[in-house]
């Protein structure tokens, strides 16, 4: 199956070059024109770093959010004729070996493959552990299955299926919304254990707000559950009239 890599990037100039270098080394079967950096309105040298690396660059004129960047990347992947798209964060948290593990995590090209981190062992900040735990609880409850890591950005998306589901979220809640949409249509969801790297606290750069963003994720969960159940009710009513 033809694959690409999508790297959503916002003010990631300091880490992006090493991320791209690692991916090129670990995934030589994916050519540079299928390494897609989606610059989400960066104010630093992110675009320059990406272009110097010789990869494909798509830019937003202003910062729209991670979900918007992923949607842009998925549309670009579709235009390239890719069946699956691996998403890798630009901050260096995802070792290239973990990226390969997720890329090869399922033989089914229609499955959504999720990287699963051990946040405690990896030394993730307590705020991240807490917000991920809340997200896991709510999504597992509404998805009807246990989900081990609902916020990890290292994933493999089936391109056409993901776009066809019509995700609406533009921020971090995009990743939670996609899981619920896949579970609602009973599509395959595969979890793959991965390693991640968290730098020392004074070197960490994150755009994730550990209070505001989990609240937005929960709001999107509730909206998505309501919408999918309403669609199911309408289909059931139409079938029985």
Automatic annotation (TrEMBL):
This is Glycosyltransferase family 2 protein. It comes from the Bacteria. It comes from Pendulispora brunnea. InterPro entries: Glyco_trans_2-like, Nucleotide-diphossugar_trans. Residues 4-132 form the Glycosyltransferase 2-like domain. Gene3D superfamilies: Spore Coat Polysaccharide Biosynthesis Protein SpsA, Chain A (3.90.550.10).
């Amino acid at each position: 199956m033809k694959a690409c890599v999508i790297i959503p990037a916002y003010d990631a100039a300091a880490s992006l070059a090493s991320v791209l270098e690692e991916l090129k080394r670990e995934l030589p079967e994916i050519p540079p024109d299928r390494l897609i950096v989606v610059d989400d309105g960066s104010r630093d040298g992110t675009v320059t770093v990406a272009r110097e690396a010789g990869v494909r660059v798509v830019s937003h004129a202003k910062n729209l959010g991670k979900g918007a960047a992923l949607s842009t990347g998925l549309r670009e992947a579709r235009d390239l004729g890719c069946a699956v798209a691996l998403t890798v964060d630009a901050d260096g948290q995802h070792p290239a070996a973990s990226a390969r593990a997720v890329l090869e995590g399922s033989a089914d090209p229609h499955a959504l493959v999720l990287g699963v981190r051990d946040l405690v062992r990896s030394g993730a900040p307590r705020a991240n552990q807490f917000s991920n735990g809340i997200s896991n609880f709510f999504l597992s409850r509404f998805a009807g299955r246990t989900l081990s890591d609902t916020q990890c950005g290292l994933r493999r998306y089936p391109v056409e299926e993901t776009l066809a589901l019509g995700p609406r979220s533009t921020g971090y809640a995009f990743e939670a919304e996609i899981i619920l949409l896949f579970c609602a249509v009973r599509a395959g969801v595969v979890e793959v254990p991965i390693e991640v790297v968290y730098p020392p606290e004074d070197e960490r750069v994150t755009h994730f707000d550990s209070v505001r963003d989990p609240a937005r994720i929960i709001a999107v969960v509730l909206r998505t559950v309501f919408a999918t159940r309403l669609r199911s009710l309408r289909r059931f009513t139409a079938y029985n009239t």
